[in-house]
Design a protein that fits this description.
Elements (H helix, E strand, L loop, with lengths): L2 H15 L4 E10 L2 H9 L6 E6 L5 E10 L2 H11 L6 E2 L1
Antiparallel strand pairs: 1-3, 1-4, 2-3
Helix pairs in contact: 1-3
Length: about 90
């Protein structure tokens, strides 16, 4: 399944299960590098609630971001924006 197909399936699922607008929770893991963490945070508004947790080894940071999203497309667009960040894992 291509990445575009995965995004289409995600949009379908989101539209079935959620009412818009909604608070959506994004979860990411990045290497513990201040530049990458700042890149992730910069993709979200000042109203977003951001929490971070360091891994036991200290090599990675888990970032949870809650933000009001208006549509399923806006969520998919946000994931696409994150694509260029090296070492980023999305959940």
């Amino acid at each position: 399944m291509s990445l575009d197909d995965q995004f289409e399936k995600l949009k379908e699922t989101l539209n079935k299960e959620l009412n818009w607008p909604t608070i959506y929770m994004f979860k990411f893991i990045v290497p513990a590098d201040n530049r990458r963490i700042a890149l992730v945070e910069s993709k979200f508004s000042d109203e977003a609630i951001i929490t971070k947790k360091e891994s036991t080894s200290g090599k990675y940071i888990s970032i949870t971001i809650k933000e009001v999203m208006l549509t399923a497309d806006s969520i998919v667009d946000k994931y696409k924006e994150m694509d260029g960040i090296e070492g980023l894992m999305s959940f």
